[in-house]
Specification:
80% helix; Growth Hormone, Chain: A; two-stranded antiparallel sheet; 503 residues; mainly alpha; single chain; 2% strand
Amino acid sequence: MSNTVTSSPPAARERRQGVNPWLVLVIACLAQFMVVLDISVVNIALPRIQNGLHFSASDLQWVVNAYTLVFGGFLLLGGRAADLLGRRRLFIAGVVLFSAASLFNGLAQSSGMLIVGRGLQGLGGALVSPAALSIVTTTFTDGDQRTRALGVWSAIAAGGAAAGLLLGGVLTDVASWRWVFFINVPVGIATVALALRYVVESRLQGVRRSYDVAGAVTVTVGLVVLVYAIVKAQSFGWGSARTLGLGAAAVVLLGAFLWIESRSEAPLMRLGIFRVRSLAVGDTSLLLVASGMFGMFFFASLYVQDILHYSPLKAGLAFLPVTAGIILGSGIAQGIIKRLGVRNVAAFGITVATIGMLILTRVPVHGSYVSNLLVGLIPLSLGLGLTFVPVTLLGTSGVAREDSGLASGLFNTAQQVGGSLGLAILSTIAASHTSSILRAAGASVTAAQAAQARVSGYQDAFLAAAIMLAVGAVLLAVGLRRRHMREIEAELAATDGVTVAAA
């Protein structure tokens, strides 16, 4: 039986037939903004959270990684469930869970309670994001409108991470760190109310409702074990039995996930979808970009507070140009993508972002915001804005309509898993370098020496992030050829006859 997409019943369609599709985009983007913002909004609040709930320095990153790992691990299941149960239904369920978990986090009384709550938030986000992106891609089928809609989506998704730093600073300074979680509750309630009124239900028909829970569990646990092994490698030793054992367990679990997917009648991740070269290369490049980007936000926020001694509010304001740069870059990308080509714009954007990251490798202890930090943040943010629009097109175009949920889930998975792994790797690099310097200094370490050791660790992390970005640019340049881009760029060119440079 062929796979078809069915919408809501006639009565529901009649109630919503006059709804502007751009209003649907606003609703989807509102939820996505809340989900993405929550990844970074806690970064500015981390020092206050650490003191309030008594986190150790090595465990603090789990406030971020508990969210992103569960988010990334269950995104594919969320995408599959959205296709089968209904995109609007999963969208609303995810927003409700996300908002409830946010309230739980705001009331947390211990580090363990907060980490559990962050995991629940990640599960809610895993239901929201693929459903929201799938709603957008199925609502906008015209090539030109779809590009514009995905441009807005990309700006919201990328800008949300930067805006979270500003909002986190304001809430932490004016109220307390708990309000970085409480703020999600009224936003979630408003989003659910709007979705119930204006978003039309859609789902696949003609397929058996089967959910690959085993696949979701093995990939999530495998990723958690892998990140834990990387985080603990500094204290265990890279060649220790515990590190190697954890690494082996992660490989076995991820291998089991691939085995399950290759034999399942209704796989969480149909491996055949990676035959779409644009999707495979686009998602891999996004994984690398996210690895560097998440680390940048984490270490830059620590640098301005712990080294430059900014208040949370001042630190949040310091990242306001990043939001503006990402939005500006996204707008430029929409304007040039038809003339220069999807692949070329993405590769150029990552290259510009890499230059900005390399500038950050020179941040000093006694630094200046304008001459040492802003000069790197401007090209970095512009480059990210230029990158996300074309990469979103690569990751969600050229697939069958029945695979839209899977493609959306894979795209979001690449971003969240990349962020988790990248942060774990960069944190380990920074901590190892800092510890090495402090051990060499001996027992009598001055405050100035300790600050220099931390900054040296940050510099190494920024350098590693720049390498990740550069590899993503190279992958796009060598991994995609004209034949791989033909369907996507023909669809774009057909909207107004513009010739696309895809050579």
